[in-house]
Design goal:
The chain is of the alpha/beta class and 588 residues long. It has 22 helices and 16 strands. Helix 10 runs parallel beside helix 17. The radius of gyration is 27 Å and the shape is globular.
């Protein structure tokens, strides 16, 4: 059917003018015709066909526009700039400059690490920075900042990878415990020909899924079925898979907490769904308000014309560091029952709860306690956080509950399309959910676990206390996860300067912090926040030996920043504009 469109709107259709030059239908000029969906598609196709005659095979205008629109603040422009600064600061290590020059002809910049060296130092560029190192407090990457891997896990992984080449028990170097040998042998027996490099079942090795099911049953007091568990390359891959199942049209929406982990907004964009934010209550430690859930649902339906299909809960919270109490979780489940939406439980920080915060309660347990068998539930966990911090091994899982068998089969099909997740990551999941049981190994494991978690809690308190004492910053202690999320009360002049440069005020603050101290944080604007509020997310992962120096940098910067932007004047504003635009242009 045709829908007449005014002449001024016709020019907004991509390719309309091009198609007008190419074709007429009968005796009527194309420009005189009513615009129909079919005509719009034809015009767009004509435009793209014509552009390929003069444009590159692939360009920003020809690739998937959803990828161009997607944003992921945790690894956005600030991190790219931090990497650039790191390269300026880098010093060659133990390699003669002539030899490096030989390699530099043959290696791209991305290959420098493969040659075992850093790019050559440029004294002029190095001297432009008032610091000697970049510290990445932007991401929860524990081992990158010094956290050690669990010894038992490393032994089992090494033995599994070595296979028949592992040293015998009577070797002079007894580096492997008997229990590590037994566990590795059981894992190899579960693999095809004992080979880590062989594909597993699409949903993961059954032996590992059985370990995950036992872990969940012990944690929640309800049975778990290995066939309801899929092992994935980290929790992020599981989220990708589930959202591709849930979001099938542009009118399908995902209810996400603001502030949210930007994986959810990015994947929703890639899947061409709609984002429907519900705001967490900052005044009550970022808790969930049941009334706000209903308000968000109504905004999505009546204002945005989309239908929420699922709701995301991140507990403990990222970026907020909050730990939700039982009442909030029950309100979520009751909302999902009433509104007929699925529930996505991001629980990757379940081992990271500190002090007198509400203890972690899995949403599966709440769903089962409330007998909410009509709420489809997807629960995610990962080896990347908690005590293990095995981010680079890419191990995670999703457990599904209350899923229609036909839908379950479609999720399994998605797993099969990816063949399987990496087997080393699968083993890491097994080692996370099934710690050693022998007396000596268990005692050492628990000692290391408690030491890591206690250290994280001390660092979280130190960072929160330091920031909360500064003028213009409010920073409650973290209840969980690996971050604090302080609120910034920025001077009006700083806000105006940032907005004139096209930056969110907290992004401007974070960029200045990086340029003047080498500290990388994530602006709250990258996570979503209430209009007129500004935050930064700071990971408290630098070691206890390093955290004092990190805080000293941040304190000195903040005091200087607040002083610089405290007293407005017209002349100073013009100087700020010139200085900032020069900086933005230099790093564009």
């Amino acid at each position: 059917g045709s829908t007449p469109v005014s002449v001024q709107h016709r020019t907004m259709i991509p390719g309309f003018e091009t198609l007008s030059k190419w074709a007429t239908l009968g005796s009527a000029p194309l420009g005189a015709l009513a615009v129909t969906p079919r005509l719009v598609r034809a015009a767009s196709t004509a435009s793209r066909a014509l552009s390929t005659q003069t444009s590159p095979a692939l360009s920003l205008h020809s690739i998937n526009p959803s990828i161009v629109r997607a944003k992921y603040a945790v690894r956005g422009p600030l991190l790219a700039r931090a990497v650039e600064i790191e390269r300026d600061l880098a010093v060659p290590t133990g390699v003669p400059s002539t030899r490096y020059s030989w390699f530099s002809v043959r290696l791209s910049p991305c290959d420098d690490h493969r040659a075992g060296m850093q790019p050559p130092q440029d004294p002029a560029r190095r001297g432009q920075y008032p610091f000697e190192s970049v510290v990445k407090c932007n991401i929860g990457n524990p081992q990158a900042l010094g956290q050690k891997a669990p010894r038992f896990a490393r032994e089992v992984l090494a033995l599994s990878l070595l296979g028949d080449d592992a040293p015998d028990d009577d070797s002079e170097n007894k580096v492997f415990s008997p229990e590590a040998r037994r566990r590795a042998a059981s894992y190899r027996a579960a693999m095809t020909r004992g080979a880590v490099g062989a594909y597993s079942e699409s949903t993961g090795l059954r032996a590992i899924r059985e370990e995950v099911a036992a872990f969940i049953a012990t944690r929640d007091g309800y049975p778990a079925d290995p066939d309801d568990i899929q092992l994935t390359d980290g929790a992020s891959a599981a989220v990708h898979r589930v959202l591709s199942l849930v979001l099938g049209a542009e009118t399908d929406a995902l209810l996400v907490p603001y502030p949210q982990y930007p994986l959810y907004s990015a994947v929703t964009c890639l899947d061409r769904g709609a984002l429907a934010p519900y705001y967490l209550d900052e005044a009550t430690n970022w808790s969930i308000d049941a009334a706000e859930l209903d308000a968000a649902y109504e905004r999505a339906v009546t204002r945005d014309g989309v239908v929420p299909r699922a709701l995301v809960v991140i507990n403990p919270g990222n970026p907020t560091g909050a730990s939700l109490d039982r009442a909030a979780l029950e309100a979520v489940v009751e909302f999902c029952q009433r509104r007929r939406v699925a529930l996505l439980a991001d629980e990757v920080y379940q081992a990271n709860v500190y002090g007198d915060a509400p203890p972690f309660v899995a949403l599966k347990r709440v769903v089962r306690d409330l007998k909410a068998d009509d709420v489809p539930l997807f629960s995610f966990h990962s080896v990347s956080k908690g005590f293990t911090g095995e981010c680079g091994l890419r191990g995670g899982y999703v457990e599904v509950c209350n899923l229609d068998p036909q839908v379950h089969a479609q999720l399994d099909k998605l797993a099969s399309i990816n063949l399987c997740s990496n087997v080393v990551g699968q083993l890491a999941v097994g080692l996370m959910v099934h710690p050693p049981e022998g007396a000596a190994e268990q005692a050492a494991y628990e000692r290391d676990r408690q030491a890591v978690l206690a250290s994280l809690e001390r660092r979280s308190r130190r960072v929160a206390q330091t920031l909360d004492a500064l003028p213009g910053i409010t920073c409650p202690p973290a209840m969980g996860a690996l971050y604090v999320f302080p609120r910034l009360d920025l001077p009006r002049r700083a806000v105006d300067t940032a907005e004139r440069a096209g930056l969110a005020p907290d992004a401007f603050y974070a960029r200045e912090l990086l340029e003047k101290t080498g500290l990388v944080v994530v602006p709250g604007s990258g996570f979503g926040q209430r209009e007129g509020t500004y935050h930064i997310r700071v990971a408290f992962l630098p070691s206890e030996a390093e955290i004092e120096g990190v805080m000293a940098r941040l304190v000195d910067f903040h005091r200087a920043f607040m002083e610089e932007y405290a007293a407005p004047s017209n002349d100073d504003d013009r100087h700020d504009d010139h200085h900032l635009h020069s900086r933005v242009a230099a790093h564009a």
